[in-house]
Amino acid sequence: MAQLLILTPAVDSEVLPALSLLSHRTRQIPAEPAQLVNAPSCDLLLVDGRQDLANARSLCKILKTTGLSVPLLLILTEGGLTAVNADWGIDDVILETAGPAEADARIRLAIARQSLDQTSNKIHASGVVIDEASYSAKVHGRPLDLTFKEFELLRFLAGHPSRVFTREQLLSEVWGYDYFGGTRTVDVHVRRLRAKLGDLESLIGTVRNVGYRFNLHEEENENREQPVRS
């Protein structure tokens, strides 16, 4: 069962009749950008484009450009299908006449796709979760305040667990071939990264006279597990 939010100019009407036959929880609010400030949370957002396609298009674009984090579906009449294209920023369309089975399938699939998209760019290793899409990282759920290069360094090392990299290799992979600074910058960033990892600072291991590596927990090594890209 999903939480659905419908943006519609006809708040008091039944926008998508099939929803009344499904178990999803549905709320309707006016189709105005200002209404989104205090909008209730939801798993999926539907925009009513049955009567005013131009308004619906503008609203969909606003929603996407402001960083909408849930799937966006557009409710249309059959005639409205000819006007929709990719630059509207929607995830799917659904006709107002859709039956409950079709409506439920579109809702479930849209939410599932969103979930896969959000996790497909993540690296999980030894309590660290690295989100490549949002350039963020967490340790046991605690957000890490990383600079761009600190994030890049952590992402690269965690993406190649137990493999040792020389300072020169890390400079090339993380800073790029056109970086003219010395290898000491790698040591500085490793020191800062360890400080931010706190109790898990040992995840960034030093191999004397060689370089650095990302250490997996002992139980992960025993099971030969690699960081998971979910």
Supply database-style keywords:
about 230 residues, alpha/beta, Rossmann fold, Arc Repressor Mutant, subunit A, 2 domains, five-stranded parallel sheet, five-stranded antiparallel sheet, about 30% helix, elongated
Quick recap:
With 230 residues, this protein is of the alpha/beta class. The protein has 2 domains: 3-119, Rossmann fold (3-Layer(aba) Sandwich), CATH 3.40.50; 122-229, Orthogonal Bundle (Arc Repressor Mutant, subunit A).
Q: Which value, in Å, is the CA radius of gyration?
A: 24 Å
| C-alpha termini separation | 23 Å
Q: Which assembly state applies to the chains in this document?
A: single chain
- Biggest pleated sheet: 5 strands, parallel
In terms of structural class, how would the helical and strand content be classed?
Answer: alpha/beta
Largest sheet, spatial ordering of strands: 2-1-3-4-5
CATH architecture of the largest domain: 3-Layer(aba) Sandwich
Q: Which class of the largest domain in CATH terms?
A: Alpha Beta
Instruction: Let me know the number of strands.
Output: 13
Element order, helices and strands? EEEHEEHEEEEHEHHEEHE
Q: What fraction strand?
A: 15-25%
Folded structure, characterized:
α3 (148-158) packs across α4 (167-175). The longest helix has 20 residues, at 100-119. This protein has helices spanning 53-65, 100-119, 148-158, 167-175, 184-197, 218-222, and strands at residues 3-8, 25-30, 44-48, 72-76, 92-95, 122-125, 128-131, 136-139, 142-143, 165-166, 204-207, 211-214, 228-229. It has 230 residues and is α/β, with parallel strands linked by helices. The strands form 3 sheets. Strands 2-1-3-4-5 form a 5-stranded parallel sheet, sandwiched between helices. A 5-stranded antiparallel sheet has the order 9-8-7-6-13, covered by helices on one side. Strands 10-12-11 form a 3-stranded antiparallel sheet. β3 (44-48), α1 and β4 form a beta-alpha-beta unit. 25% of the residues are buried. It folds into 2 domains: 3-119, Response regulator (Rossmann fold, 3-Layer(aba) Sandwich); 122-229, Orthogonal Bundle (Arc Repressor Mutant, subunit A).
